[in-house]
Amino acid sequence: MKRSLEWIGAGLLLGASLQTQAAVDVRAAIASGYGEIEAPGLDAKVEDFVGGDFRARFQANEHVFLRGQYLTMSGNDFRANGQDYDIDTDLDVLRLGVGYGSNWNSIRLYAAAEYVDLELGIEGEDDNADGLGATVGISDQGNGSWFWNAELSALILDDLRGASLDASVGYRFTPTVAGLIGVQSYSLEDKDDSDYEFGFGQVYAGFQLSF
Description:
With 211 residues, the chain is mainly beta. The chain has a single domain (22-210), classed as Lipocalin. The protein contains 1 helix and 10 strands, in the order αββββββββββ. Strands 1-2-3-4-5-6-7-8-9-10 form a 10-stranded antiparallel barrel. A hairpin with a 4-residue loop joins β8 and β9. The chain starts with a helix and ends with a strand. Mean pLDDT is 89; it is low at 1-20.
């Protein structure tokens, strides 16, 4: 009986600790960007991508976190080999990951493993690639009004290999509400044909809620 009470007590203390340390950040932003495709005989670019960037992060305890991102953009200003076309183009990116971080004074270093799904649609014809990402990042964990974050990811998505870069800076209006701006870019190429390259990027601005 005593042993059972000890286990119950330990479980309650652990649950209370996780509840105390747990934190959630939710982001929503307007995104504006571009997309590029280079292949033999083709040099194409979409310059009027607009859409939304939605992210969430759950800090389970001092070190472990879960996170996700959904980016959706669309445009129709399609330029190929110097000619302009009105072609509906859609881009969707889903990222889901688990990570581990540690603080050093006001700086936090972290790494994450992610599932990444990328879908490009041109005039209703969709091309999908999914796979894994490995991310390392650094962020400001200070208590001041300003905060920042930067991270680099290595990506393996089916036959595509490459990297993504994300950097942002924000301002806390209150402990719960913050505004932020940032940039994100992707650069990918076919692992078997380096002449095929695909890249896109965005500038985003929005808000963050922290609980």
